[in-house]
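Researcher: Good morning. I'm working through a list of sequences from a screen, and I'd like to move beyond sequence-only analysis. For each chain I'm collecting a predicted structure so we can compare shapes side by side. This is the next one on the list. No need for commentary yet; just the structure.
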Amino acid sequence: MIRDERGAIAYLCQTVTLTVMSSRSSPEQTDDRLAALVDDLLVRDPAVHAAALDELADVGDRRVVPHLIETLVIHEIGGDWEQFGFPEVLRDRSPPRYLELPEARWPGVRDALQTIAEPDYDSDYAWVEWETWYSQQGIEPLEGFDEWKLQLYRSYLPPVGRLLDAEPRAFDLRDIRWGNCDPSFLAACNEPDFVPGDAVATDAESEAGEYDRYLDPKDAVFGFTVGDTAYAVPRWVLFPHELANVTVDGTPLTLTYCTLCNAPICYDRRVGDRSLTFSSTGMLLDGNKVMFDEETESLWSQHRGVPIAGEYLDGGGDASLDVRPVTQTSWAEWREAHPESLALDIDTGYDFDYRFYEDDIGFFRHYWNDEDAVQPGVETADGALPEKTDVYGVTTDDGTTVRVYPVDDVPDDGVWTDEIDGRSVVVLRDETGDVAVYEAPPTPVERDDDALVDAEGTRWRPGRQALAGEREERGESGEPDGRERPRMPGRHGLFFAFRSQYETVEVGPTGT
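Model: Good morning. Structure tokens for this chain:
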């Protein structure tokens, strides 16, 4: 596309150059010319972009496909924010200013891709289809791609590019994808208030008070406890934040949520003598959310809770966040198990229409449930389980291996016995119906209503933090006898997230 006289002159010159190059250039000269053309894609002039894309299409070298994919994503999202912006609840607002700039367009980029590569995508979501296709190809880019990509992000996605520029890095820059947003749009929910659950429950018998009654019994919640106090955060309220930094009972926590992986994970955000404040980078690594801490701008894996770039990785890479148990269940189930539970006050101070997600979490169900829908940036593989299997995983002490259990297979009234890191464990459903893993008492272990009975006949009561042994008095269960078997914190998510994030993934028993 030739947009003006300057573009026409540039196009004519490059066409002449191409003709000469095709007949007389050496491979080294061709590479130099291709490098110059992809550098033109960084120039702040859409006419120069268009001319460069025309010539790249004529040359037809697949090594430029990675460059074109990167520009295509920015071009398509910036050009149609109302359809592609994230979070969805902000699509009726203006996009980030850097996406509105006229130079943030690459006219003809989709045509160039279709000329160079095999696919011919023409749907409204063609850029997503291109990303999915590209993730399966293993195309080696031109030399210098890493620095080129960093400059693209610094220039055209400045809040994201600043964070991506962290060093050292424990990942390949080609595996990073922009996720349609930045830290200002996907803002963390910082220090929200928690109020009595009855004050916000729609079916509470008490009279309406000062708080908005918004929490229905069927609503999915993420529940956790600190000390003797239980807390519930509705999924649909956390959705447009994907992350909440809270301090409860003096304990600083971050409740993270990767919407593409359907993975709520709770961490203690203390590292050494610091309490870190986490936020979302707006980027994905192998389909999983990338976080950063505001204190050092180090990048962190949401799923593994370890640094992957920046100061904390430079310090030896041995920093990690302690995982806290988080339950994914309904408000009705959580409240029945924890009648005095506090719940998030929906008046967070952020100008989000949370009810947008109350009964509609958009295309994410498509990603969660459709095996043919591939999350952006994920290289598919044949694994021990289908990619979209909902699993609960517990890692080994060194964090390199994770043992996963398909959630739907865990029996409602039974118990599995397994082994993690050489320790016997039991896997069962807790009082909310979610999966829980505990260090095992003497095996074999049987389920007896809401208790376990071990090989010695001792009854154990599953609790939030541990299995509690009970004294036997006249053949009936008595008070706790002080013995405990700790609960092993785990992670929820779709199987592909575990497969792509850990060195080794093992599948636990799938039967009694």
